[in-house]
């Protein structure tokens, strides 16, 4: 009798263990399912925000084209795309300085306008011109390389001027004499998209001050075909945010198209 009771007790215990194991497995599966669902929901929200930002940016390009009904002007604008709210910030690049084109006097004046002392401004302006080319005489080139190598040995990071146009504005921060603080103050006034000197009517206060220092004849006196715009699209959905930044030239494209995208990236 005791043996049968023991067997029944053992069987009951085995059943309880089995049920506990099944409950544990079920809980694990449910938790994993909830995690996968949450991940899928987040991915969908992120994809929706990115698509909304790209869509708003494409709409902005359309409304900036010449002859478009209800053309847009530079400035802020808000759009609703699907369930997303997109804030657009459109800027005209025509009032900025192109470090690939500007002469040393304009660069010196702009550096002074953002806080560089006269001696440093002149030195850094020349360093910008030397970085982009044209190629220096052999002796001058060797001296310039020696200066960059000496700085590299001191900082542990060696960057040598390529003798070619700047590919991005980050490279401007690598020229001799440039400090991170000065780079950050200078960068908002630079653009690689402009094809002419800055237009005084579009210039921000720093660029306007630099142009004023050079005299009334400074700045673009003719309009180069094609106007460059910077566009920032900040999209927000219920579960995600996404920012797209682009620089677009309207008109004057080599391919014959009505516009050309010069930069397209995701903001951090």
Q: What are the main properties of this structure?
A:
268 residues; alpha+beta; Pantoate--beta-alanine Ligase, Chain: A,domain 2; 2 domains; 5-stranded antiparallel sheet
Descriptive report:
- The structure is a single chain.
- The chain has 2 domains: 52-98 and 191-268, Pantoate--beta-alanine Ligase, Chain: A,domain 2; 104-187, no CATH class.
- It has 6 helices and 5 strands; from the N terminus they run αββαααααβββ.
- It has helices at residues 2-64, 104-113, 118-132, 138-155, 180-186, 205-214; strands spanning 75-81, 84-92, 227-236, 241-250, 259-266.
- The protein is elongated and about 110 Å long.
Please summarize what this structure is.
The protein is α+β, with helices and mostly antiparallel strands.
Arithmetic mean of pLDDT: 84
Major sheet, described briefly?
Answer: 5 strands, antiparallel
Task: State the shape.
Answer: elongated
| Order of helical and strand elements | HEEHHHHHEEE
Fold-level CATH name of the largest domain: Pantoate--beta-alanine Ligase, Chain: A,domain 2
Strand order in space, largest sheet: 1-2-3-4-5
CATH class category of the largest domain: Alpha Beta
Q: What is the annotated CATH architecture of the largest domain?
A: 2-Layer Sandwich
Question: Portion of residues in helices?
Answer: 40-55%
Please report which band the strand proportion falls in: under 5%, 5-15%, 15-25%, 25-35%, 35-45% or over 45%: 15-25%
Rg over CA atoms: 30 Å
What's the helix count?
A: 6
List segments where confidence is low: pLDDT < 50 over at least 5 consecutive residues: none
Strand segment tally = 5
Structural class of the helices, strands and pairings?
A: alpha+beta
End-to-end separation in angstroms reads 76 Å
């Amino acid at each position: 009798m005791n043996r049968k009771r023991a067997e029944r007790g053992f069987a009951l215990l085995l059943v309880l263990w089995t049920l506990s194991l099944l409950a544990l497995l079920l809980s694990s599966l449910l938790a994993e399912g909830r995690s996968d669902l949450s991940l899928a929901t987040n991915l969908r929200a992120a994809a929706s925000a990115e698509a909304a930002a790209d869509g708003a940016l494409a709409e902005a390009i359309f409304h900036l084209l010449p002859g478009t009904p209800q053309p847009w002007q530079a400035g802020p604008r808000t759009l609703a795309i699907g369930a997303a709210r997109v804030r657009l910030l459109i800027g005209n690049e025509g009032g900025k300085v192109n470090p690939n084109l500007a002469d040393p006097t304009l660069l010196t004046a702009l550096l002074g306008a953002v806080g560089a002392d006269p001696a440093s401004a002149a030195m850094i302006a020349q360093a910008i011109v030397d970085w982009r080319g044209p190629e220096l005489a052999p002796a001058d080139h060797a001296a310039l390389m020696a200066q960059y190598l000496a700085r590299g040995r001191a900082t542990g990071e060696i960057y040598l001027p390529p003798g070619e146009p700047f590919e991005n504005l980050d490279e401007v921060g690598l020229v001799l004499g440039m400090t991170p603080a000065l780079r950050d103050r200078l960068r908002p006034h630079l653009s690689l998209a402009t094809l002419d000197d800055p237009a005084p009517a579009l210039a921000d206060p720093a660029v306007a001050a630099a142009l004023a220092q050079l005299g009334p004849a400074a700045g673009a006196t003719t309009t180069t075909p094609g106007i460059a715009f910077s566009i920032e699209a900040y999209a927000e959905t219920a579960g995600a945010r996404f920012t797209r930044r682009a620089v677009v030239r309207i008109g004057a494209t080599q391919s014959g198209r009505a516009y050309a995208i010069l930069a397209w990236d995701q903001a951090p």
